[in-house]
Every structure is written in C-alpha cells, then in structure tokens.
Amino acid sequence: MKIFYGVQGTGNGHITRARVMAKELYAAGFDVTFQFTGRPADKYFDMEVFNGYQVKTGLTFNTHNGQVSYVKTALEASPIRFIRDISSLDLSAYDLVISDFEPVTAWAARRQKKKVLGVGHQYAFGHKIPRAGGDPIAEQVMKYFAPADIGIGLHWHHFGQPILPPIIETPAFPQNTQANKILVYLPFEDPQVVVKLLCPFENFEFHVYSPEPAVSKYPHIVCKQLSRAGFQRDLYDCAGIISNAGFELASESLQLGKKILVKPLHAQMEQISNAEALKQLGYGHTMFDLDDAVIEDWLHNPHAVHVTYPNIAKVIVQWLQDGMPAMDAEFTERVWESVQVLQIQH
C-alpha cells in the first residue's frame, strides 16, 4: 500500500508523533511519502527517519509572547501560495492519504475526492472531551483547518469516547532521576524572560531549550539549542517539565513519570483545553502567565503521575493492515484496558 502522509510542522509535537508512526509503517512494509508544512525547510531537524520527505509552506499560526494572534495569522497567510500548493499536489498514485492536522494534504485530497484519515490529538475534539478557551474562530479553525473523513483522535484518557491513547515512544521507565533537574521548553516565550524568571530558584538545575539561542549567566540555568537527541536525554532523567500545553511533550512526560507544569498559549483553544484536561485528571499543574509563585509551589511538590501507554502506532498500523474496520467503542475499550496509572513521588 502506498500512503501519502501530511504532517503539521509548526510545532515539534506533530513531528515527534510522525517519527513513531514512520518506524511502524516502514516495519510493516508500507510505502510512505511524508510531507511537512508550517515552517521553513531549514528549520526542520533530526528528520532522517522519514527516508526523504517534501516540504511546502502550508499555514502556520502567528504567536507573540505566549499568545496566538488570529489577526496576524490571517494577514501573514499567503492564500495564493496555499491554493497553489493544494493544486500542485498529485495524490493519484496513493492508496491512502493520512493527515496529522496538515492542511495542504487534507484539502488536496478533498479536491481530488480521496478519503482522508486524520490521525492526531486535534481529531479528539470531535468528541466530548474537556474543552476550555473556545470561541467561534477557534472552533472553525479546529473544524476546517485540516478536515478528515475518518478521524482517529488521541488523548491522555478516553473520557468515555471512542478515542485512542497518545502515539509516543515507549521507553523503559527511568531508574535514575535527578530530583532537582527540571526541563524547560517554552518556545513561544522570550527565552531571556524565562531565564530571569527562573534565576531565584538556585536549589534546582534548569535545562532551558528554545528555538533561538538564549544566554544564561547563572550556573544553575543551562540554555540549549533544540536537539531531538539532547532533549530526550534531559527529559529521561529530569524530575519534571515546565512547558506550554502541547499534547505530545506532556504525553511523553506522563509515560516517563515526570511531574508537569504547563502554561497554555493564550487564545489557543487546544492548549487551554489540554491544561484543563491535565487539571481534571490530576496529571499536572497549570499557570496561565509566567508566575514565579506557582513555579515555586510546583518545584517543591514531589507528586507526579506515571501513565503506561501501549504502542498505539503499532495498533493503528495493524488496524490499517486489517482493512480499517470500524473503530467502535469495543475496539477502543480493548486498547484502553492495557493503560495503567500510578501515583509516584520524586
């Protein structure tokens, strides 16, 4: 089977999920072409797993100081180029089209009357899950940004809905965790503001990753350039993470039993809803602004949650091999039976 797989590349979470899917799809013998949109071609990194891939401009969201601006997003979009990308994408040679919330692929398939399988967290919003921060614009963006005929929604909990657990790597649980080591990834914030915010907490060691290089004069704050391998090493042995409320990093952190503090992007319904879900489930803490008092309380709170998720990429690939039968409540309940939740202390 030949598959065309479109991935939203604005954030790293979609790409992380696609890496896991790529390994399972290739292992099963599928012929897959990946396309990424949402950032310049030279801003992608650690992409070797995709065996050659293509890049188009697509659409991306404008953010500034931790907030999405829909007005600037609309003004900076290039509709002519977007339509040209859709028109130039020939999907006739492919048996299946998959979109991880990637609009060029989704709309090109719709134009060519090809069925689209949507795989990703955003497709869970078609079901009754925790929602917050919604407005008419956000609701329309979620519905029409990358429409799919069949949507496989992913979330940390089923909430009584026919959705699946996250698609993440499933490494062994860390045996050696550094109790005072904290991983910080706030890519939509000014990194120098983040460094200044963290400087009073000298009893902790912060590893701050950001898209653009930052500088720290404090020995307990180490600033690092984004690197998949380096980030994973620091995530593996840290005690907790401070991040925006993206889905994939929180999923990996739960799998590894890290305590979580998230700051959702303002005016971004998905991230605000993610923060609400973490709060409802008792899986993490939230702050809606860079708040040193909240950070201090969280740093001294040893409670964390370890959630063991199965290899969902393998489950989906097997489902594809089985001919894509109805993913009903019975199917999803069987998957969730293997999920285990354990309360731990760091």
From TrEMBL:
InterPro entries assigned: MJ1255-like
Any GO molecular function: glycosyltransferase activity
Domain of life: Bacteria
Signal peptide: none
Keywords: Glycosyltransferase, Transferase
EC number: 2.4.-.-
Enzyme class: transferase
Protein name: MJ1255/VC2487 family glycosyltransferase
Organism from which the protein derives: Methylomonas defluvii
